[in-house]
């Protein structure tokens, strides 16, 4: 019973997000403390990991943060896009759309350090994927909504490729909960015995920085495929 209230609240958020204009906040969201991380027009508030500005391959296209792979082929640099600010306890809501055969991810708790060199070396990930046509879709714990390579979704909830999905990540004092399109997919507490077991059975077992930073940046992954993000909003807890 303890999960009913937050699940309903986040489901209502998902429903309201699908009904309202992208990249906007309703009066109820503003009152509840939600803030936009993407204004729908610029890349303000973001930069490429270990850089001071967003790389040229990240563009704003039709009101979405778009990773333009054609631009990369023509020499524009890519890389994971990260928030300028760091966050510890929060609810993050974000809409995503993936290209056919595409792969990306929402990575959080990212520590920015040249010694690490990549967002995923410190940050856990909510998977974003074309589950049907990308090779990763055949692997357990690698599907959309999964806690990537650690825990499989409790229920599959992704929409067909090309459609907008709404993901919510709630992180409070280490307790981590994922929703995808209003369906709870992950519930685990970071640092718990369950977490340690999941970690020991993942590719991150020997990665010393992985999941070690309670406060960190939020990243949108460049995995070499076209992807779009919009309506990126956060409420600090």
From TrEMBL:
3-keto-alpha-glucoside-1,2-lyase/3-keto-2-hydroxy-glucal hydratase domain ranges (all copies): 33-235
Domain of life, source organism: Bacteria
Secretion signal, residue range per the UniProt entry: 1-19
Annotated GO MF terms: hydrolase activity
Key words of the record: Signal
Cited Pfam families: 3keto-disac_hyd (PF06439)
Regions crossing the membrane: none
Protein name: 3-keto-alpha-glucoside-1,2-lyase/3-keto-2-hydroxy-glucal hydratase domain-containing protein
Species this protein is from: Chitinophaga pinensis (strain ATCC 43595 / DSM 2588 / LMG 13176 / NBRC 15968 / NCIMB 11800 / UQM 2034)
